[in-house]
Amino acid sequence: MSKWIPRKLGLSVLSLLAASSSVYANTDFEQCKTELSQQAVAQGVSGETASKVFANIQYQPRVITLDRSQPEFVQTFPGYYGKRVTAWRIGKGREMYAKHRELLRKLSHKYGVPAHYLVAFWGLETNFGSYKGKMNVLNSLATLACDERRSTYFTKELITAVKLLERESLDQTQMVGSWAGAMGHTQFMPSAYMNYAIDGDGDGQINLWESEEDALASAANFLSQLGWQPGFRWGREVNLPENFDYRDTGYKNRQAITNWDQMGITKANGESLGSSDEKGYVVVPAGHNGPAFIAYHNFRIIMRWNNSEFYAISVGKLADQIAGEAGLIKPLPELPAYERNDIIKLQTALNELGYDVGKPDGIIGPATRSGIREYQLSKNLVADGFPGLDVMEAIGVFSEAPKQEKQS
């Protein structure tokens, strides 16, 4: 396959690509489409379908821009959570739960995934179907398949999407979704659609755009196949003892609930965690001033849908509240909307002070958290590994707090 877009392009060059997309569409992209069409036929798509589909696929320069772009701001947990677990989503979630009560009951019985979780995923992915994306999926996938950066992955997803179109008699123009190719009520990538989507309304077709029943049934099947553990929660909010060692947080520090209970961790309402061999780990997404959680096995299953602890906590708490439980007990702390450059400055300063966090990239990963924690220990600060205002000011990233991030 022709690799016709260079690996590294600045946004200015991408803008030029957008201005001259017709030139590329008539030359290299057309050659790439021909090769993709041939691959599709070799993998079982009929020649008639391949010819019709690929004739209508168009290059989308904006997809490349979005793929290359980096966010200006670093998302913090209060900002993320506050925009997702809202009173509107809780109320709408309860409404949709009531609408599909009988179907959800059957799905929960068959797949072991409680109904309120299915509704929570639906709410976070597409606002219960009110926003499924506007970009033509096949155009997006073909554009990414013809780009060198992740060509192999997106070629597979594109050909799978064409197989789905043929299998389910889908309308190419109505196959819309995210710029990266996620589709329908549940924002499945084509491979997830092919492997896990099922017919929930009994009409003989699996249509994740038009059928809410198909989407909910497919979500239940997907989570079950990923390894959802029936009868167990995602996790819960907890209180940590004053002397808690924050080096004990994270997935690598999984322990039986009995052990955490003996260490003085309680439920958020002060009740004992109790005795259990079930393992969990402590998550502190906003530092020691914010809420803390114990995450169980199903938390990791949620992260296989979207590999983000912020996302998994939001799904869990939205599900809890749709089912009538309380929201967060400990309020979210006010945190600034850090710019990416702020984190790069922090990482640079940590390296200069002898705390090796790797190449400054503006991403708060394990190495950066470890470096922050070691710095905090050296300054007798609470060593939670979180870039709070005390750390940012002490290390000289800025002398006064930036603008606070809005939480809703």
Describe the protein in words:
The strands form 2 sheets. Strands 4-6-7-3-5 form a 5-stranded antiparallel sheet. The chain has a two-stranded antiparallel sheet with strand order 1-2. The two termini are about 45 Å apart. The chain contains 19 helices and 7 strands. α7 (about 85-100) packs across α16 and α9 (about 115-125) crosses α16 (about 310-320). The protein is mainly alpha-helical. Among the domains are: about 1-75 and about 140-170, no CATH class; about 235-320, Lysozyme (Orthogonal Bundle), CATH 1.10.530; about 340-395, no CATH class. About 40% of the residues are buried.
Task: Spell the H/E element sequence.
Answer: HHHHHHHHHEHHEHHEEHEEEHHHHH
Classify the beta-strand content into a percent band.
5-15%
- Number of helices, counting only DSSP H or I runs of 4 residues or more: 19
Q: What ranges have pLDDT less than 50 throughout 5 or more consecutive residues? A: 1-25
Radius of gyration from CA coordinates:
24 Å
Oligomer: single chain
Distance between the amino and carboxyl termini: 45 Å
Residues in helices, as a percent range: 40-55%
Keywords: Signal
Protein name: Lytic transglycosylase
GO molecular function: peptidoglycan lytic transglycosylase activity
Pfam families: PG_binding_1, SLT_2
